[in-house]
Specification:
Elements (H helix, E strand, L loop, with lengths): L1 H14 L4 E5 L10 E5 L6 H9 L4 E6 L6 H9 L2 E4 L12 H13 L3 E5 L16 H12 L6 E9 L8 E6 L6 H6 L3 H17 L11 H9 L8 H13 L2 H18 L15 H9 L1 H25 L6 H26 L5 H30 L4 H16 L1
Length: 406
């Protein structure tokens, strides 16, 4: 019950937290087969929120066993379908629980339940998959050892984001074709060989679902390039193409590219967060429309300023690892907005205000409108800020993008 309540609330909140959430590959999911979904883990706990609410099946999850030591957190995690798994790196004291944890997962798979597992074992802010752990392969092997004809599939997922440091970006969830491990199990002469080959299959398929870089040091360069793409070009295929070009470049070319991007961002100044203004023309009609829409946008923005400020301030003061900044901002903002609406509803009822629900619904719609209005205003301001040097900056941008996207 708690899982589905949280599912609905989170899916609703996500609609207004990102510019776009694009999911590819749903048509390839096996219909009657329990699935172990495997995913990368770049941005804290934002991936399970997005994936769970955009895949058409109930999911269970495996999480680090140390999260379950507190009885309250253990109860809450169980309610939202999260089960413990214990890692060698966390010490041997809890490793004896791993056999039972794996058996619990297998029993759920046998009953038709699907799992989502973050196969890197930890979170790190980057596009590429890091080395994949063998936990999923172990579960699959044990399940097939019990029943070689067991119904099971492994489906790798790649999670990418046009800007993994803040909300309002474009999110890409790429679902690979399912891997059916029965044939490999029958042909593998030993468990170690099966684990090695199964993990390699998951790795190879996973790499195709993200902008995979050969050199970890190139992650910052790819993120910088993504940051100068206009909104319309912040597409998964562009990120993937850029990563492939970086993998072929020599170090001198990368250094030159880095310097060119930094130079362009410095010249763009405050407009560097969105280069859309370089490519859009603005008319008097658009200015008039923005002026006419200012009052409802101000009303919608003003009502939501406090929770936005609370979320940003809390994240800035408490989050030490950038990987958790986005999800913390998301959760605190949504909780603050919910609390604000609840207080407003109660006060309106106490004051005898009629149609309180519909008034708050109207305010919510104004808040959504304000999100898009603010984006248009920023682009318009950047248009005038860059006036007189747009052609020069466009030439610099095209020199960079032609190198990365052609």
């Amino acid at each position: 019950m708690l899982y589905w309540l949280a599912w609905g609330i989170v899916k609703f909140a996500l609609k207004f937290s990102f510019r776009k959430i694009e999911v590819r590959g749903m048509e390839d999911l096996p219909k009657e087969t329990p699935v172990i979904f495997t995913s990368n883990h770049p941005v804290g706990f934002m991936e399970p929120l997005v994936i769970a609410t955009h895949i058409s099946r109930s999911l269970h999850y495996l999480a680090r066993g140390d999260y379950f030591k507190n009885p309250i957190s253990r109860w809450l995690l169980n309610q939202i379908h999260i089960l413990p798994i214990y890692r060698f790196r966390d010490g041997f004291s809890d490793m004896r629980n791993n056999e039972q944890a794996m058996q619990n997962a297998i029993d759920l798979l046998k009953s038709g339940i699907s799992f989502l597992v973050f196969v890197e074992g930890s979170t790190k802010l980057q596009y590429s998959f890091r080395p994949i752990q063998k936990g999923v392969s172990r579960i699959v092997h044990q399940m097939l050892e019990e029943n070689p004809n067991a119904n099971i599939a492994v489906v790798p997922i790649g999670f990418s984001d046009s800007d993994m440091k803040k909300l309002g970006s474009n999110v890409f969830v790429n679902i690979a074709k399912p891997i059916f491990p029965h044939e490999l199990y029958r042909s593998a002469p030993s468990k170690p060989i099966f684990l090695k080959q199964m993990t390699a299959q998951i790795r190879d398929s996973s790499h195709e679902q993200v902008p995979q870089l050969n050199t970890p040091e190139d992650e910052e360069l790819l993120q910088n390039f993504a940051s100068i793409l206009p909104v319309k070009d912040q597409l998964f295929q562009n990120l993937k193409t850029a990563a492939n070009h970086l993998n072929k470049m020599q170090e001198a070319e990368k250094k030159s590219l880095h310097d060119a991007i930094i130079s362009l961002k410095q010249k763009l100044g405050k407009a560097s967060n969105d280069t859309t203004a370089l490519f859009e023309s603005f008319s008097i009609v658009k200015i008039v429309i923005l002026l006419l829409g200012a009052i409802p946008a101000i009303l919608g923005r003003a009502f939501h300023l406090l929770p936005i400020w609370i979320a940003k301030t809390f994240a800035n003061r408490t989050i030490q690892k950038t990987e958790f900044y986005m999800v913390t901002t998301f959760v605190v903002r949504f909780v603050s907005v919910g609390f604000l609406y609840a207080v407003a509803f109660i006060l309106m009822k106490l004051c005898g205000v009629g149609h309180a629900f519909f008034i708050l619904l109207g305010i919510a719609l104004l808040g959504v409108y304000a999100i898009y209005y603010v984006q248009e205003v920023r682009t318009t301001i950047n248009h005038f800020r860059l006036r007189g040097k747009k052609e020069t900056l466009k030439k610099e941008y095209f020199r960079i993008s032609n190198q990365m996207l052609k």
